[in-house]
Amino acid sequence: MFYGKLAFTNLRKNHRGYSPFLISMLFLVAINTMTQIIVNNEGMRALPGGASASSMFGLGHIIIMIFTVIFSFYTNSFLLKQRKRELGLYNILGLGKSELYQLLIWESFLSFLLVVISGLITGLVLSKLAFLVLHRMIGVGTEFVFKIMPESLGFVTMLFAGIFFLLFLINCLQIKRTKPITLLQGAKKGEQEPKARWLLAIIGLVCIVSAYWIAVTIESPLNALNLFFVAVVLVIFGTYFLFTAGSIALLKLLKRNPRFYYKTNHFISVSSMMYRMKQNAAGLASICILSTMVLVTVATTASLYLGKKDVEESRYPRDVAITTNHQPEQVKKIISKVSAEKQAPIFDQVYLTSTQSIMFSPKADSYSYLNLNDYYSSKASTAVMMLFMTAQEYEKHTKEKPELKEDEIYFYPVSGDHQSDKLTFKNQSFQIKKRIHQFPGINQQVELTDSFVVVMANQQVIDRCLNSWIPKKADNRERGPKYSFLFNIDLKGEKKRIDFAQALRYEMQQALGERQYTFDDKATFVSENRLITAGFMFLGITFGATFILATALIIYYKQISEGMDDRERFEILQKVGMGHKEVKKVIRSQVSMVFSFPLVIAVIHLAFAFPLIRKLLVLFGLVNWQLFLLICGIVTVIFALLYFIVYRLTARTYYQLVERKS
Prior knowledge:
- The chain is about 70% helix and about 10% strand.
- The protein is of the alpha+beta class.
- A seven-stranded mixed barrel has the order 3-4-7-8-6-9-5. A four-stranded antiparallel β-sheet has the order 2-10-1-11.
């Protein structure tokens, strides 16, 4: 029990070093407990779109577990560095390495009990709060209630038992490989002036510039999805290389500038940072990456949640949309029948006859027909969708009679645009007589690919074109007409609207059979989209809080580490004549410069990522980039304030360490 009492005394008295580690581990236990209970909740799958939400939360929990393992090792490395002198002193005073291992066993065991018990309790409280928040955000789901599941608590306990065991092994391995005198000087490691690694600095710069180039030049949302992770990896590697190699190279250049270097503040700050940058650059890079993750995650998820109304309105200009290739009169009868049965009056109906949506590939100034195989293999990002209708059909819906020759068209850009006054297909060219800016039932919006509606003189011209463009071996359905039925329903209440849509869908299936029509309704989408966006928002808050805590703890550890390293330096400076105010000014300048740099770079990362994320949001139906820009600005300001508060609170520890004898 001697080692148990000694371990307990260490934990109690060395609270400055242990508290951040224990708090971070406690928070990680709580977060994992909360996500486990949500992921394993059976009521989640009973909600509309619950399967997708469960998969989303499951993926989020995997990311959190990976982050948990990595961050646990990271915080443990800081703790071990601070304790090396203490362990070395124990070793010199008579405790052999086997006795130190026993001490570590007790410390790990007591830390594990404290962290897991308090973390599980905190996690259950947060889970209850999370269920209340999700219920408020989702607004449905009587089966989705808070339940304490022993298997979830057991999983989290086993996960952290494994993590603490690995940390114990790492600490033992460090002690085994290190001599007592080295342990005593462990905190002094890395005092040699580092060399400027220009090659790594150039590689880091190339990675960052390449990622920025991808972000600002991307045009297609599909390309944005493919290149997003490439850009993320380039930013991560580039940031680490620039902080570890580029920062040293920059300090070397500043040192070579006599006008800048030989000033009191600059001389001390540059010299001090140069010696510490080798061991602290990775920590600053981690702060920068975590800050960027907070900004991107929270801004993106908040935009999806707050912009769900825009998504619903842009995707569904009418409450119900039905398309079929045959029996349009039968569909009209079914709509009228269900409308009468459900006492749901129909208004703003648009019954449109057109061609199928046909894919084309743009080549120079012309368009060529694109089949499905080419679309899925390589041309998806450049494909253009076109829908053709007659002048007579256009007149029926707009009350405007177009006077079109066979080589003239009306052109309506639904998404994207065509700049030329002519539209050329293979060996045919049409003069654009008029550009349409509005059409009933088809809203202009940003879509995954460019999309156009083309009005031609008559059906004979359309048939001749289709026979010329589409190969004979292609599916004949592409040459046939498409009948679209769009309308609003006069019903109050989401449940009644969903019931109407389900009844109409059932009647359509009975009359036309499977795969003979497509059916979309706004009420069902709104119900499912609410769950998805709420889930994203909740994950964004969870990830954001986790990353903010990680950032705060890294800053705190760095303040302690640098304070212990700098204390003797500033004591010497005061002994050789530097005043107390000058020392404090140098400290403030040095600390603020070091910790503002990661935040500035994170904001720059977000600024360059904006075009890429804007394209990705189109995949979710959010085309309101002004809303996304506004939320990015608000999130950046709030995070900067939190960052400043964390910096001010942790800076006190640094001042106390450095100025203890001043």
